[in-house]
Design brief:
Length: about 400
């Protein structure tokens, strides 16, 4: 088994994929979001049979790097002897993870009045590198959004900072990341078009042919791709249907079809939708079902939004998922609204549920999420699809042998 430390673990999309590959053993992990770490601890304990999970999956702020490594006793985060003590004499072969991507994403930079230049998350990779410096693994996986390739907080390219940091620590990464390191998860059987940058860093002192090892990783990743697309209907079409009520009951706007002979699925309850939104969702989905396509252009969608709400928007608010195509990206922003993830069935007239979002991210149905619905949408949107992560793990295991 290949031993790993996992940083910025989230709810465990990357972890689950690595475990599914059968090659990796997580020695320790770090995550600061309390809902995400609760979900991951439950998964590691219940699915992967980890013991003493609170001792190895740390709830802590990675920016407090000295305490993370050497131990802490904290009112908010509890106590730990630190990563050095947890790892002990074990060999850390790989460190995997990716800092929060909001500061690097193009959408995030557009929404922020300062273009995310002052966002502390731009520099969380520095904490990642300090953990790498401590344990000197043979290889690292650094996952993020393509926006990081163009982000320039303070006028200095993030990717140049990352490249220099790895180089200073004795690691080699590809010098052609735009050409080699950007992957579309829908090419790996994920029912979602989601672009991600996967940087593999190889320790120069561990391999004479470290440049060839990096090339081999990307060649292997590309060998796993396929032109066969998994559509939305394949992923979520078998879930119980949820129809609008004629009159809402408190904060419930939809009812579940009868579950005769079916197994009930957790987290499959839609948001509350008012009558206006239900009408809009049904109208937009039926427009596609009838192949009229009156509302597939952004101008028509913006006009519809103004007609129905009396408000004006510079961007179109609505998007209906296509049954035969992969979903658009499931974002963390999904916790605020689901208007760009409308269910394709016009009779259901709603946005997607937590379980549908999880399915589109390839989480198994027995994966249990934590917190309220908002927290669940958010952790799912922040996650690496486990199926994609499994392919990363297989490619990494190949170069590590």
């Amino acid at each position: 088994m290949i031993n790993t430390i996992e940083l910025f673990s989230g709810c465990g999309g990357l972890t689950d994929g690595f475990k599914q590959s059968g090659y990796f053993n997580m020695l320790a992990g770090v995550e600061w979001d309390k809902n995400a770490i609760q979900a991951l601890r439950n998964r590691l304990q219940n699915k992967w049979q980890y013991k003493n999970i609170n001792d190895i999956m740390l709830h802590f702020d990675i920016q407090r790097i000295s305490e993370l490594l050497n131990g802490y006793d904290d009112l908010e985060y509890g106590n730990s002897n630190g990563l050095i003590d947890i790892v002990g004499k074990e060999k850390v072969t790989a460190i995997v993870g990716g800092p929060p991507c909001q500061a690097y994403s193009v959408a995030g930079r557009i929404r922020d009045e300062k273009g995310m230049h002052d966002d502390y998350r731009n520099f969380l990779f520095e904490s990642y590198i300090k953990v790498v410096d401590q344990f000197q693994p043979d290889a690292c996986i650094f996952e993020n959004v393509p926006g990081m390739l163009s982000a320039k907080p303070g006028g200095i390219s993030i990717i140049e900072r990352v490249e220099k940091a790895f180089d200073d620590s004795g690691y080699f990464i590809s010098r052609q990341l735009k050409q080699e390191a950007v992957f579309d998860t829908s090419k790996f059987g994920v029912p979602q078009k989601r672009l991600r940058v996967i940087i593999v860093a190889v320790r120069k002192a561990s391999f004479d042919n470290y440049e060839a090892k990096v090339d081999e990783f990307y060649q292997t990743m590309n060998s796993y791709t396929s032109d066969e697309i998994v559509g939305v209907d394949t992923a979520i079409g078998d879930l119980p249907k949820l129809y609008p009520l004629k009159a809402p009951i408190k904060k419930i706007s939809h009812r579940t079809e009868e579950l005769i002979g079916k197994t009930e699925v957790s987290d499959h309850t839609p948001r509350f939708h008012n009558a206006r939104d239900i009408e809009i969702f049904g109208l937009l989905a039926k427009d596609i079902e009838n192949e009229e396509f009156k509302y597939t252009h952004s101008d028509a969608l913006k006009q519809l939004y103004t007609e129905k709400t009396g408000k004006v928007s510079a961007v179109h608010k609505y998007h209906v998922l296509r049954k035969e195509k992969p979903s658009n990206t499931i974002p963390a922003h999904l916790y605020k609204d689901g208007l760009r993830h409308i269910h394709p069935d016009s009779k259901q007239a709603r946005t997607i549920t937590v379980r549908e979002a999880a399915r589109l991210q390839t989480f198994d149905d027995d994966f249990e999420f934590s917190g309220g619905n908002g927290a669940r949408y958010k952790m799912i949107g922040n996650a690496v699809p486990p199926l994609f992560a499994k392919n990363i793990a297989k490619a990494l295991s190949k170069i590590l042998k």
